[in-house]
Design goal:
Protein name: UBR-type domain-containing protein
Low-confidence stretches: 5-42, 242-271, 323-345, 363-376, 436-448, 530-540
Order of helices and strands: HHHEHEEEEEEEHHHEHEHHEHHHHHH
Largest sheet: 3 strands, antiparallel
GO cellular component, one term: cytoplasm
Number of helices: 16
GO molecular function, one term: zinc ion binding
Helix content: 25-40%
Pfam families: zf-UBR (PF02207)
Distance between the termini: 17 Å
Shape: elongated
Keywords: Metal-binding, Zinc, Zinc-finger
Strand order of the largest sheet: 9-11-10
Radius of gyration: 33 Å
Length: about 550
């Protein structure tokens, strides 16, 4: 047996099975890759490799289905998906440090910042892509737009950004009023985006995202804290009885379950893999179309009066009404609201539903009285609506809420300042990527094989270099295609000797060819011998 140490890991060794790799480390043997491939069901043939590549490309098309050939800056302000780059515009470590926020469109996030640390902010209204402007470092130019100085595609930087773009802490990867750093791999549960009635500068939120628990003042991890509180209570009760935690028998477990059922009536038990439940009082997702956070409601107090009327859900209070009363009148209003909720709780479900329907009908009737038969506003609806609650609350609305808003001359000016209240917004989506090779050469996904995409990328280079590169690339493609094709058709695994011999031949390395030939001949002799085709390999 050879005493030579095993060769260093190479790319050929990546397809060895885990068991074979472990055996090699233990015995110091490094057997022929081709022989081990034939003996192992875990090794990968050329056909398997090509099939896996097709699967990966299909996954890429699903994850990135849109074309990445065109930057949206030339289209002006849009409601579109926006991304921030923490590599180019890192968040400041201290609040007083200077920070220049910036956002980019979908195409630039892939083509220009694909290797950077990105934050997906999702949709923002009236936003113009900042890529290639002074908000980004000149070392990170836009590769998609036409450079006005050279009249060529790419290397666009230092342009003036759109002064109307608005930014909030989302561009630092911070979300909600709890200022959390969002990690999609760690955070559980659903966050909701506020419709937004103002920017951070005007007292609104700028279309921020919120945890349900934070909207009711319980925090993002309210359920975890509740579980800890219950666990402590159970532990204290156990310590009082026995002083230590005893082994739970089936009988004890049943009794324990019966004893805790009542305490868990309001909140379902959460498994590690389950989504956290909604906090108490939070509406079901099917009951509302969207919402306005308490910040936007406070910045536009005129909309408070719509809470609980037709088209809107009852207010979702951030604080308990009694706790936020600032005056006797506020206290009486809050107390009345509390008594009303308590009285409704005492009623059976059918009676409560009947009252709610009757209340909505009455509100609709009062609102209709403020309009003529032709629909022209003659008087304001607001005097006919209930008195607005004084506490901070978020306002959830239904699909038809726009029809329920007052459009009189006094109210229309307030609505006109926020066009999203007048009509549903159109969201820009990039065109879908073609399945075949890109016609314009900018796509790096969903456009044929890896070789075809390489040729596509070369089209963005200087013309002379691109022609030379394509000629060399096509030559390599012509050489590699038949090499892999023979293995794919035969189903035979690609051996290390096959790869080394082939590339040695391409390099004109006669010594390499000779050594590879000798190795192949030795491998054949061993296959015909008694050792079942296994041989020693002395290394490289």
């Amino acid at each position: 047996m050879s005493d030579n140490p095993p060769p260093p890991p190479t790319i050929e060794s990546l397809s060895l099975s885990a068991a074979e790799t472990k055996t090699e480390r233990a015995t110091g043997r490094s057997n022929s890759f081709s022989q081990q491939s034939r003996a192992s069901d875990d090794s990968q043939t050329a056909a398997d490799f090509l099939r896996d590549q097709e699967i990966l490309e299909a996954d890429a098309r699903e994850a990135l289905p849109y074309s990445i050939e065109t930057c949206t800056k030339i289209l002006g302000p849009l409601r579109q998906s926006v991304f921030a780059c923490l590599t180019c515009n890192p968040a400041p470590t201290k609040p007083e440090d200077a920070w220049k926020p910036a956002g980019m469109c979908y195409a630039c996030s892939v083509s220009c910042h694909g290797e950077h640390t990105l934050v997906e902010i999702f949709q923002k209204r009236n936003f113009t892509c900042d890529c290639g402007t002074t908000r980004f470092p000149s070392g990170s130019p836009c590769t998609l737009r036409i450079n006005s100085e050279t009249n060529t595609k790419g290397n666009v930087h230092s342009e003036e950004p759109d002064a109307n773009n608005k930014y909030n802490h989302n561009f630092k990867n911070r979300f909600c009023c709890c200022e959390c750093d969002y990690d999609p791999f760690e955070q559980k549960g659903t966050m909701f985006q506020c419709m937004g009635l103002g920017t951070a500068e005007t007292g609104g939120c700028g279309e921020d995202w919120y945890h349900p628990g934070c909207l009711v003042g319980m925090g993002p991890k309210w359920f975890e804290q509740m579980n800890k509180t219950k666990a402590k209570a159970i532990q204290k009760e156990t310590e009082k009885k026995g002083g230590a935690l005893a082994t739970i028998t089936e009988k004890d477990e049943a009794q324990s379950n019966n004893g805790t059922t009542e305490a868990a009536d309001d909140v379902a038990v959460e498994d590690d893999d389950d989504e956290p439940p909604m906090p108490p009082g939070f509406p079901a997702e099917d009951d509302f179309e969207g919402f306005l956070c308490y910040k936007c409601v406070e910045a536009n107090p005129w909309i408070k009066q719509y809470a609980g009327t037709s088209g809107f859900l009852p207010p979702l209070f951030l604080d308990q009404p009694e706790a936020s009363a600032a005056s006797p009148s506020n206290e009486s209003t809050a107390t009345a609201a509390s008594k009303k909720r308590k009285a409704e709780d005492d009623e059976d479900e059918e009676t409560a539903d009947a009252k709610r329907i009757k209340s909505e009908d009455q509100a609709s009737t009062r609102a209709a009285e403020g309009e003529t038969k032709g629909g022209s506003p003659t008087s304001c609806k607001l005097p006919n609506l209930p008195v607005a609650p004084k506490c901070r609350f978020s306002l959830f609305f239904k699909e038809d809420f726009r029809e329920k808003l007052c459009h009189c001359s006094g109210c229309y000016g307030k609505l006109n300042a926020h066009p999203q209240l007048l009509e549903e917004e159109e969201v820009y989506e990039p065109p879908l990527s073609d399945d075949g090779a890109s016609q314009h050469g900018g796509s790096t996904h969903g456009s044929g094989s890896l070789l075809d995409r390489g040729e596509s990328a070369l089209r963005n280079m200087d013309r002379v270099k691109a022609i030379e590169g394509v000629m060399a690339y096509n030559h390599l493609k012509e050489q590699l295609t038949p090499f892999f094709k023979q293995f794919a058709e035969s189903g035979k695994a690609v051996g290390a000797e096959d790869i080394k011999a082939y590339f040695a031949k391409l390099r004109g390395d006669e010594q390499g060819i000779k050594e590879a030939g000798e190795a192949a001949a030795s491998s054949k002799e061993n296959r015909d011998g008694e050792d079942g085709g296994r041989r020693e390999q002395s290394g490289y």
